[in-house]
Amino acid sequence: MNSQDFTQLRQFEAYAQKRFDLSLLAGTFADSRPQPQIPSRAVGLSLVLGEVVHIPSFLQLQEETQLGQWQRWVGHTQPISHDTFGYASERLDPAQLARAVRWINRKLKRGKAFEANKINGLLVVSLDANEQFCSDHRCCEDCLSPEVTCKDAQGQEFKKKQYYPKQVYAQLSGPELSVILDLEPMRQGEEECAAALRLLRRMHQKYGARFFDVVVVDSWYANGPFLKTVVEELGWPVIAVLKQERYEAHQEALALTKGQKPTQVVERDGRQVEIWDVPSVRFTDTYPGPVRVVRVRERWQQRQQVGKEWKTQEKEQNWIWVVAGDLDGYEGAAIRDIGHLRWKMENNAFGELTQHWHLTHCAHHHPVAVVALLWIKIIAFTLFHAFAILHGKLFRLGKVTLQEVRKQIYRSLLCDSSIPVFSG
Q1: Spatial contact of 248 and 283, defined as CB atoms under 8 Å apart
Q2: Taking a C-beta distance cutoff of 8 angstroms, is the pair 47, 378 a contact?
Q3: Which residues contact 96 (CB under 8 A, 6 or more apart)?
Q4: Cβ pair 43, 49 in contact under 8 A
């Protein structure tokens, strides 16, 4: 252990208290247990700290709460049982936890933490849906239950039901700090667009119309009703991948750009990017106004190992984006850059949460607990990344990784006897 290990948890607590008023945030962990013997904030802070140091199960969390430094940090001098975590998580209020996430994100924006996330001055929100975890047997009333086709050992196809909760997420992606603003669980029998519109309407009400500037989405959302609602009712421009060849806009964009010189050629990360900009085409009967279509061809060279030899191969990708709403003042290159932000969501949100934050592990399968624990994971995810990326000098200098910062926080639980009882 080094000297940094002894102080890391104390620094994390001091940062969270100074920037986000940790003592006030702890109040959002209140649950509806009648006359609880263990305070709600001790349970909630244990759940947050468990996420920060990556404790995947309540049984393991129960063991960690025996540590003296853990008890000092959460303000409760006794271990907390896994049954208590399960019972309390069923009685948490997801709406309160969502308010805590909004509180943190507003603080970050006021502190200019999202300035590096902007593209041509625009702050962009990416929407996408994700299946949290999947089971063939365990389910609750909020799990989706589609029928899937599988193959047995003999290669024969058969159908079975799978059960999983699925949510639509809204993320602000950046070169360093990426945060999840909000999420909306999908309901039985509905499509992603319905959950996404509930999510956007709530964000419009809770965050306000000016918290971000543009919405970027996958091809699932490239339909008239979705675009009309977001652009006309909520006032946000939308950039969507356009894959459906049946749309007139797709066919017209290809026809108008065939054989034409690109309107713009730029370089991005070693790729030559050719852009054709079609300013005004008809989309569908369900979207009244014209849309802008940006067609992009990207070419680059990539070294690949073929057998025992390394060879340089030519690579090419083609994209078409539809732009609804007023973004006429932004060049095609800006539209391309914004459109690619959605893929950062795969890496910065779902990839990171799945690989390092146990997103696919269900600590307690109960309809309220699943959502509440997901919000707590997001609170911990945002607090930790803000601490490590914005506050951590060693991380900014490239001397430690995020995983090393997390390990230092855990090691400080084992060795730093000077951390006071959390008094919030």
Answers
A1: yes
A2: no
A3: 28, 30
A4: no
**Paired residues of 163 in beta bridges:** 135
* Residue-wise pLDDT tens digits, 126-151: 999 988 877 776 777 777 776 767 77
Q: What is the pLDDT of residues 5-38, one digit of tens each?
A: 568 899 999 999 999 999 889 999 999 999 999 9
Buried b (16+ CB within 10 A) or exposed e, 60-75: ebbebbeeebbbbbbb
- How far apart CA 398 and CA 413 sit, in angstroms, is 24
Beta bridge partners of 278: 293
Mapped onto helix, strand or coil, the DSSP state of residue 192 is helix
Contacts 24+ apart (CB under 8 A), 414-419: 414/67, 414/69, 415/1, 415/5, 415/6, 415/69, 416/5, 416/6, 416/7, 416/9, 416/10, 416/69, 417/68, 417/69, 418/10, 419/9, 419/10, 419/13, 419/69, 419/72, 419/73
From the number of C-beta atoms within 10 Å of its C-beta (0-12, 13-18, 19+), residue 14 rates as middle
SS3 332: helix
Residue 73 tokens read as: 């940090």
Burial (CB < 10 A; 0-12, 13-18, 19+), residue 54, is middle
Q: What element of type H or E holds 239?
A: strand 238-241
pLDDT in tens, 81-102: 999 999 999 999 999 999 999 9
Provide the 10 A C-beta neighbour count for residue 312.
Answer: 9
Whether the model clears a pTM of 0.85, i.e. scores above it, the answer is: yes
Amino acid at residue number 4? Q
Q: Is 50 helix (H, G, I), strand (E, B) or coil?
A: helix
pLDDT at 420 over 90: no
How far is residue 228's CA from residue 219's CA, in Å, rounded to a whole number?
A: 15
Rounded CA separation 231/236 (Å): 5
Task: Find the helix or strand (DSSP H, E) in which 44 lies.
Answer: helix 40-52
The one-letter code for the residue type at 292 is R
Please say whether the dihedral angle defined by the alpha carbons of residues 260, 337, 298 and 283, taken in this order, is positive or negative.
negative
Is 310 strand, coil or helix?
A: strand
Q: Which residues are paired to 238 by β-bridges?
A: 215, 324
151 burial level (CB within 10 Å; 0-12, 13-18, 19+) = exposed
Counting runs of H as helices and runs of E as strands, what totals does the chain give? 16, 11
Could you tell me the CA-to-CA distances from 397 to 314, 388, 401 in Å, in that order?
A: 35, 11, 10
